[in-house]
Every structure is written in structure tokens, then in C-alpha cells.
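To close the chapter, one final illustration. This time we ask the reader to focus less on the individual chains and more on the assembly as a whole: which components sit near each other, and how the overall shape emerges from the parts.
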Amino acid sequence: MKDSITYRLPFAVMLVLGVFMMVQYYIPASPVVSARDMLLQWKQPLNGFIILLAIGGVAAVHVRKVWKQQKRWGYSVVTLVSMFAMIAAGMVGGMEEGSVFSDWFKYLISPIEATMFSLLAFFVASAAFRAFRARSTAATILLVSAAVVMLALIPSVANHIPIIAQLSDFILKYPNTAAKRAILIGISLGAISVALKTIFGVDRTLLERSR
Amino acid sequence: MSGDPYVWVAAILTLGVFSFLYRDNAFFCFCEHLVVGLSSGYMFCTYWDGVFVPELLAPLWQSGTGENAHLWVPVAICFLWACKYVEKTKDMYRLALAFWLAIDLGLSIPTHMDAGVLAQIAGTLRAPLHGSPVEVAGHLVMILGTSLALCYFFFSREQKGLFGVATKGGTWVLMIGFGASFGYVILSRIYLLIGRLLFLLRDWLGLVG
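The assembled structure is written out below.
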């Protein structure tokens, strides 16, 4: 019996709360709105707690690596020291502009992340070289569309050949919007179907017991 | 050349990440692990200070037995979530997961329907068919393009005959969209690269004005 409750209760919670959150959108009555606000107020700290647990998980993985002196454990020391130093800087020195915490974000995190993303320029350019080959009608359309948009974003080209800028503007405003709308409609219908299947217990994979 | 030690550190780390272009090396791994640690610490502080304390701990501290007593419920749910890490109680975690998922999924259904489906259909169908010839042609392209691209996503019917022609047109519309997005991605990465090179040459070395 106990086993049956622990197994079924999550599905019941999912059904009741899921249906409530779904229908409350269409019922603007005050008790419904306050119930919804309370549920959202309960969920907010849970979001924070999950992130904090995840960070604890990262720390635990690296502590284990250092403890067992696994391969490349020295880098785990770098991760742990920098993590706790950043936490100490934020908790002790505050997080406002001009603090050590804010300076470390500006001069340590930002340059590394920006450079990581800028590295992608080389890999994206190499991928583009392979993708932009006019082997079929669809590939040719992709090539022309990307070339026009890229050329229009270069100021000297856009200034000297205004038709490129106009064509890019047309592509971005109309066919690009059409493609994005169709994709968004598809994604939304897919998300709704997945949500309904999960709420009504048709798809049980998320709440199934871990073996 | 800059005299600011922070600029020097930022420049050395930038070179460390760029060293990956040669091959995976110790300098790059150091930068990689450093940013993982710093970012985790940054996230911890922002979530602690921006979410956990103001949404839960501070209200409970102020009136945990009075008007904010209901906030003991999320505390209990947090405990249920933490049960995941204890072998004997790990099933209890599913209850917290159900709560978390139910709210997100339940709320996502009307919002997706409203903003992702109905608003998009309305925006397409309400495209004004007046104005300059380019605008009229553009709006027609948008109505036709959205319909054709939607046909491509309809997999319950074999894509042949007239429907096959429509899905082929849909593929072309999608290719225009992907091409435009890809072009934007390439240029945005190149702008970032120019930004980093400018930082090295201007802010650090002072070689360019």
C-alpha cells in the first residue's frame, strides 16, 4: 500500500496541479489568481534550490576527482578554488558595481567567455564552407540567402550596393519571418502535445522510478 | 601598453583560450576549468542573493509562523528534492519533480497556444495587403511562405502530388530562414573575434587607436 502511494502520488500531483495551471489562464477569478500566485511563489525558491544543488553537484564531482587523484585532478583544484573564491567574494565583499565580485566577472569571466564564443568564428566558417555548396536547389537557396544577409551586414558593401541591403531587408522581413513563424507554430504544438501527454500520464518517462 | 593588472589578466586569459586554435593544451584547460569554477560561483551568489534569500529565507525569518507560514511548503518540497541523494528515500524526489513539472507544463500549454500558435496565425493572416508593391508582395510571400512551411511539418500524410509540391516550397522557405540565421551567426562570431582582437591590440598593447 505504502509502495503504491509513493508510486502513484506524483502522477496525481502532476494531474491536479497541471490541469489547474492549464485552466487558471482562462479563469480570472480572484481565488484562482491567488492560488496560482501562491503556487508560483512556492516554485520560485525551488528553482533557486535546484540551481544551488546543481552547483553542489559540480563541486562534489571535482572534490571526488581530487580526493581520488584521478587523471587531470590538478584542473579540478583550479575549478574548486575559483568557485569558492568567487562565492567568498560575492558573500563577503558584496556584488555591487566596483566590488571584487563584479571586477572578477568583468575581467575574468567575460573575456574567457567572449573569446570562447569568438573561437567559434573559425569553426562556423569551416562549417559554412562545407554547407554553402550549391549541390541542390535547397542548398543554393541557403547559400544565396546567407550571402545576401552577410554582405548587407558589412557597412562598406551595404553603402556602395544599396540593392543588397534592400534585398537583405526583404529576406529578413518576409520569407525569414514566414519560416520562423512556421517553426514556432510547430514547436508550440509539439510542446503542447508533450505537456498534455505528461500531465495526463500518457508519457510516464519523466516520473517513472529510477532503477 | 596597459598598466592595469586586470587588463593583463584578461589579456593572458584571452591568449590562453586562443591557444586552442593550435591544439588542446594545458593553458587552455586551465582557462576552461577557471571559467567553470568562476561561473558556478557567480551563479551560486546570484541565485542565493537574488532568489533564495529574498523569496524564501528572508520572508520566513520575518514571519515564519505568521503570514508567511505557507512558505514552509517550498521548504518541504526542497527537502523532498534533496531526498534524491539518499538511496532509501530517493523515490520521494519524484513528488517534488511532479510539483515542479506540473506548474511549468500546465502553464506552458495556454501560453504556447496563445503566443506560439494563435498570435502567429493571426499575425500572418492579418498582414495588410496594401502599401507599396514591395510590401504587398512581401506580405503575400509571408502568408504563402508560412502556409508552405507548415505543410512541410505535416508528417501524417505522404508528401507527394500537389501536397509534395507544397512541401517542396516549404523546404525552400525554411532554407531562406536558415540561410539568414546562419549568416547572422557567422557574422556575430566574427564581430566577437574582432572585439577580442581589438581588446588585445588596443586595450592591452595600445597598438591601435
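Chain B has six helices and no strands. The mean pLDDT of chain B is 91. With these observations in hand, you are ready for the problems at the end of the chapter.
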